[in-house]
Write a structure and sequence with these properties.
The chain contains 6 helices and 2 strands; from the N terminus they run H-H-H-H-E-E-H-H. It is mainly alpha-helical. It has one domain: Orthogonal Bundle (Arc Repressor Mutant, subunit A). It has a two-stranded antiparallel sheet with strand order 1-2. 15% of the residues are buried. Keywords: DNA-binding, Transcription, Transcription regulation. One of its GO terms (biological process) is response to stress. One of its GO terms (molecular function) is DNA binding. InterPro entries: HTH_MarR-typ, MarR/SlyA-like, WH-like_DNA-bd_sf, WH_DNA-bd_sf.
Amino acid sequence: MEITKTSFQFLFANTIRALFKQSAKEFDNQDIKITPEQNYLLRILTSQEESIQSDLAEIMQKDKSAIMRHIDQLEKMAYVVRVNDAIDRRKKHIVITELGAEILKKCEQIISNLSEKNMETISDDEMETFKKVLIKLKENAER
């Protein structure tokens, strides 16, 4: 199958890139020094009691070294800390700090505002249909 500028794969990939670029630009405009991926990583950390690097890599579908680089950067900014496991000292849990939770809250507000702006011309019915199609695509891809 040939990929053209109107093919699903091209449009979907370009849309994701455009949304990430838009949020990165807005983070920068608001002097927030994290990337959209780091924002996603922080969001994951708030939704799980315990997170280790390999779990985060699996959730984000990235290799462990890429996740480690993100964690290192977030740790330098004091948004996360590594905590030794009580049983296995080789294992380190990644925990979001209070400062990390504050920056995440700011990022979520920015993303919410951008989403609202981007959805202005999309009806509720169109969005529901789009979500259903995405769910089916994901289910089909995981078979």
